[in-house]
Amino acid sequence: MFGGGMNPRKMQKMMKQMGIDMTELDAEEVVIRTSDEELVFTDAEVTRMDAQGSQTYQIAGEPESRERGAGEDEGAKEGDSEAVPDADVELVATRTGAGEAAAREALEAEDGDLAAAVSRLE
Questions:
Q1: By residue range, what is the domain housing residue 111?
Q2: Which of 15, 87, 93, 104 could join 20 via S-S bond, C-beta 3.0 to 4.6 A?
Q3: 40 CB contacts (<8 Å, ≥6 apart)?
Q4: Structural domain total, the chain
Q5: 37 to each of 30, 33, 60, 65, 67, how far by Cα in Å?
Q6: For residue 66, what are the contacts with CB-CB under 8 A and spacing of at least 6?
Q7: Whose CA is closest to 42, among 69, 67, 60?
Q8: Phi-psi region of 97 (alpha: psi -120 to 50; beta: other; left: phi over 0)
């Protein structure tokens, strides 16, 4: 970022004096969606920097690029901030023998937790 060959302790002290706080996040996955692709980071190093009332995130790693499908949010309720992925609905429906509507409802009730949704329907 900055500091070149500066001692890490000295750099942290300077950043603290400037009101900058950096935190390493234990992220499992980071997904960046554009209009035509998804960049999926599975082993990324994520750092959050809090400075002057705003947060900035830095992602370091190699993403996997996936083409976005035309109907990927099909069946999701309009206005849902975190729609249940169709692949998860299909997985729960197949595993439990329930219909897709019941599987989606169970996933939504369990906040997307696959195991809890399967348990709910079995």
A1: 86-121
A2: 15
A3: 29, 30, 31, 63, 64, 65, 66
A4: 2
A5: 14, 6, 19, 7, 4
A6: 37, 38, 40
A7: 60
A8: left
Distances (CA, A) of 115 to 28, 81, 111: 18, 22, 11
Residue whose pair of structure tokens reads 């998860």 in the numeric block: 88
What is the token pair recorded at 106?
């169970």
Looking at the domain assignment, is residue 62 inside a domain? Answer: yes
Q: What is the pLDDT of residues 62-80, one digit of tens each?
A: 999 988 764 444 444 444 4
pTM as predicted? 0.44
Q: Which amino acid is at 76?
A: A
Between residues 79 and 28, which one has the greater pLDDT?
28
Strand partners, 23: 48
